[in-house]
Amino acid sequence: MTGEPLRESPARTAARIDLSAVRHNVRTLIGRAGGARLMAVVKADAYGHGAVEVARAALSAGADSLAVVTAEEGAELRDAGIGAPVLVFTDLLPEKLALAASRGLTVTAHSPQSARRIAAVPGLRAHLKVNTGMNRWGVAPDEVGEARRVLGDRLTGVYTHLACADSDPEDSGSTRRQLALFEEVLDAGSFAGLTVHAANSAGTLWHPRSRYDLVRPGVAIYGMHPQGDEGDPHEEGLRPVMSLVSYVADTRRLEPGDGVSYGLTFRAEEPMYAATVPAGYAEGYRRTLSNAGVAIVRGERRPVLGRVTMDAMVLGVDGVVEVGDEVVLVGEQAGERVGAEELGRLAGTINYEITTGVNPRRVERIYIGR
Ligand SMILES: Cc1ncc(COP(=O)(O)O)c(C=O)c1O
Description:
Elements: E1 13-18, H1 19-32, E2 37-41, H2 43-48, H3 51-60, E3 65-68, H4 71-79, E4 86-88, H5 94-102, E5 106-109, H6 112-119, E6 125-129, H7 144-151, E7 155-159, H8 173-188, E8 195-199, H9 201-206, E9 214-215, E10 242-247, E11 250-254, E12 259-260, E13 266-267, E14 272-277, E15 294-297, E16 300-305, E17 313-317, E18 326-333, E19 336-338, H10 340-347, H11 351-356, E20 363-368
Helix pairs in contact: 1-3, 4-5, 6-7
The structure holds pyridoxal-5'-phosphate.
């Protein structure tokens, strides 16, 4: 932690990914799922954690299937030798349907037209997504019958997505309305024997009625809180998976009136020290953390001074901090913690965007807990 540390990575900033935490979170979520099976959502390179490694860990802990958003994300899992069922959530262009079929992916039908495109590809299987109020993707309830007929025995599942399961677990009016409409659709159609699902992480944790045959958590698998910019994942029995770690690359003393970084938007009011950290928005440390972010050095929380730049940012420190000291941008050090929830709030975003935005071309992933 001090002096010339044993750096785990030659990268300027590294993401430590704890696969034992992935396994712990999957088991915890299965324990909360009331007997439902678990599909691990590993889209967007597993929310920035690395899809192949996370998928393997999740499957080894009891997940029985995976979900992605593009056919290429599914193909990456197949290329790594992962044979578990993979569902693609979004509507795919016809040429991508062929890729999905060739890699044994299950796709999603979002309309009668999308069902026809799927039915035209030999061997391709689909789940039908029903729009029950999120109004982003999904077939309208009054077109479900038509889409269902078009798909025939290609259809293996039916699902919906909840808009507000995370907002307020106590006031679940809109979730109840969505689930009631979903159940009306299920009752009216012929879906016997198909896999029925609705629950994201928030549904899995807080809305028992949404669990049906299978739950589809994403963010909770990564040990983050579904409320995004608040909440403590530990209180839900979850363990954060990613720590983002950098180091002090330079230090300097500031005199009263000295400014820091582009625009000199921070000015020292008294003599103080500044530490330069080689993590900027190219690494995924968001520019909205300018004069707002906080990081841990030598077990103490330190403020971001001035603007976060593309390649570096500056922390306010004391004279004891040395070049080489470890800087924890997300995670824990010596009992202090900056969660992705807190950093998301400070950045004006949510934990999902903090980890998904970490740039793997700049930030090496170091897997531990295999
Ligand atoms: C259809 C669908 N299901 C499940 C999830 C997982 O959501 P969460 O990460 O909130 O658990 C997502 C993520 O956006 C999704 O689009």
